[in-house]
Amino acid sequence: MSEIIEKKSRFIGYATSVHSEDEAKQFISGISKEHKKANHVTYAYVLPNTAKTSDDGEPKGTAGLPIYNVITRRNMQNVVVVVVRYFGGTLLGKGGLIRAYGKAAGLALDYLV
């Protein structure tokens, strides 16, 4: 688990190894249940022949895609990364969101390796 604060928004990253899409979905569901009051629960996972991302209400391409990009830049597979955001009241803009989600994902993956 990793955590960063950007302009009062809290980003909490989680990463784990998975071997199937069902395992990835179960991990995402568990994090969602744990953070019911979160504004956004975003994710990306990469398996052989399968990849999926979700922005969960954030502007398109500002959450799931940056998480996915961190995974693929590290040449990782069989991994899911979930980043939870608690909105702090200040808009970050698209660039700020991309940086924050990418940073939280990278830190979460650091703990996985």
Write a brief caption for the model.
This protein has three helices and five strands.
Report on this model:
The chain is an alpha+beta fold and 113 residues long. The chain has one domain: 2-Layer Sandwich (Ribosomal Protein S5, domain 2), CATH 3.30.230. The protein contains 3 helices and 5 strands, in the order E-E-H-E-E-H-E-H. A 5-stranded antiparallel beta sheet has the order 1-2-5-3-4, sandwiched between helices. A hairpin with a 2-residue loop joins strand 1 and strand 2. Helix 2 packs across helix 3 (93-112). The longest helix is centred in the C-terminal third of the chain and has 20 residues, at 93-112. It is globular and about 40 Å long. The N and C termini lie close together (12 Å).
What's the architecture in CATH terms? 2-Layer Sandwich
Distance N to C terminus: 12 Å
Number of domains: 1
CATH-derived topology: Ribosomal Protein S5, domain 2
CATH class call? Alpha Beta
Number of helices: 3
Overall helicity? 25-40%
Please give the number of β-strands.
Answer: 5
Q: Provide mean pLDDT, rounded.
A: 96
Q: Which strands sit side by side, in order, in the main sheet?
A: 1-2-5-3-4
Which regions contain 5 or more consecutive residues with pLDDT less than 50? none
Which structural class best describes the helix and strand composition?
Answer: alpha+beta
> How much of the sequence is in beta strands?
25-35%
CATH superfamily: Impact, N-terminal domain
How would you characterize the largest beta sheet? Answer: 5 strands, antiparallel
